[in-house]
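Please go through the protein record below and see whether the fold suits the sequence. Record follows.
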Amino acid sequence: MTPPAVMRGRLIEARDVVKSFGQTPALHGASVATGQGEILAVMGPSGSGKSTLLHCLAGIFQPDQGEVWFDGQRLDTLDEAERTRLRRTVFGFVFQFGQLVPELTSADNVALPLLLNRASRKAAYTTADAWLDRLGIGDKAANRTGELSGGEAQRVAVARALALGPKVIFADEPTGSLDSLTGEKVMDLLTGLSREAGTTVVLVTHDARVAAYADRVVMVRDGLVSADLGVVAEQVSAAKAVR
């Protein structure tokens, strides 16, 4: 039988997800779905559960209850090895502080996931150099990422995510450590290149200016996904108008 997620054309979906950390509840039955090529922004105040939801969608956290579907299969019931394989091959990640290896060069950081997927060294570094060029930092390929500015390092993180050719990119506050101008440049690159490749993006942010890059915005409040954005919708609309 074809899973409902496929019948509705949804690439990734959380259904009534519950997640707690010890005695602290984070999600109380959250449900959200997004389709192939869509850029979805997940907004909410600190502690609302939006990052936990993203981590459940990415298979990093397993929900205590509920279901997570990806491309027609139950993600939450896969074993750790299978979920790790998905994260290594079809999911890309961009986090607030990049999570790069500071002792490695920019090219090393981008090539590393490709090498872990058994690409040849030549192919991995050719791909890494190409993506760094596309992101305007080809001249930083030999620099250790610990020596880069915040904006440069975040571009390396975007290059690393896109170099895999992922089906989904999960971005958790990708501009949170950047000034507004640099953040806009990073978002232009991330969303522009993702649209070009038809990549789905799930973007967690508290910033309406960042959410304005998305096709659709949902709000997480008290561990639930709400369609009632209220004043947030007005802020996002205003940010889109400015852009």
The beta strands are 10-21, 24-35, 39-43, 65-70, 73-74, 91-95, 168-172, 200-205, 216-221, 224-226. The first strand starts at residue 10 and ends at 21.
